[in-house]
Amino acid sequence: MDAFDRKILALVQRDCTLKAEAIAGQVGLSTSAVQRRLRGLRETGVIRAEVALLDPGAVGPCMSFIAGLEIDRDNYGALQRLRQWAEATDQVQQLYYVTGGVDLVAVILARDVEDYDAVTARLMRDNPLVRRITTNVVLQAVKVATAVPIDGG
């Protein structure tokens, strides 16, 4: 990736609806060069997806929970099953394998506490090697970002 790719990425990750012509004017390339570069960035997986980011509260009642998951012993099979479970569960927004007091940290969106409780009950039922879940309720989302810092962008 060169400086042009980085500039293009900085622009499209903030607004993927920008037309190639607008990007070209901002980065100093021709429209066709921007189109070629975008195609290459998509094909190589640098651009994984182009999506609409929704305001969770605008589509209905929504609460955010941060869940710390402890696995019984160092069980890598359980980690793989948990990853698959999380991928198949829409309420699980993010899942991180971490160091420290827990093995995984999940960001979970739910309508309310009862909905969250149902999600974690399913998680425990479907993943019996989860020993404990510690929950933090998000009172206010101070910063939620999706843009990846790009040097030279």
Using brief descriptors, characterize the structure shown:
153 residues, alpha+beta, 5 helices, 4 strands, 20% strand
Q: What report would you give on this structure?
A:
This protein has 153 residues and is of the alpha+beta class. It contains five helices and four strands, in the order H-H-H-E-H-E-E-H-E. Strands 2-3-1-4 form a four-stranded antiparallel sheet, with helices on one face. Strand 2 and strand 3 form a beta hairpin. Helix 2 packs across helix 3 (31-43). The longest helix is centred in the last third of the chain and has 14 residues, at 113-126. It starts with a helix and ends in a 16-residue tail after the last strand. The mean pLDDT is 93.
Topology, element by element:
Elements: H1 3-12, H2 20-27, H3 31-43, E1 63-71, H4 76-87, E2 92-97, E3 104-110, H5 113-126, E4 130-137
Antiparallel strand pairs: 1-3, 1-4, 2-3
Helix pairs in contact: 2-3
Which percent bin holds the helix content? 25-40%
Terminal-residue CA separation: 11 Å
Please give the number of β-strands. Answer: 4
Q: What gross morphology would you assign? A: elongated
Strand percentage lies at 15-25%
Overall mean pLDDT: 93
* Largest sheet properties: 4 strands, antiparallel
Count of DSSP H/I helices: 5
Which structural class do the helices and strands define? alpha+beta
What's the arrangement of strands in the largest beta sheet? 2-3-1-4
* Low-confidence runs: none
How big is the Rg? 20 Å
Write the H/E string, N to C.
HHHEHEEHE
Short summary:
The protein is α+β, with helices and mostly antiparallel strands and 153 residues long. The chain has helices spanning 3-12, 20-27, 31-43, 76-87, 113-126; strands at residues 63-71, 92-97, 104-110, 130-137.
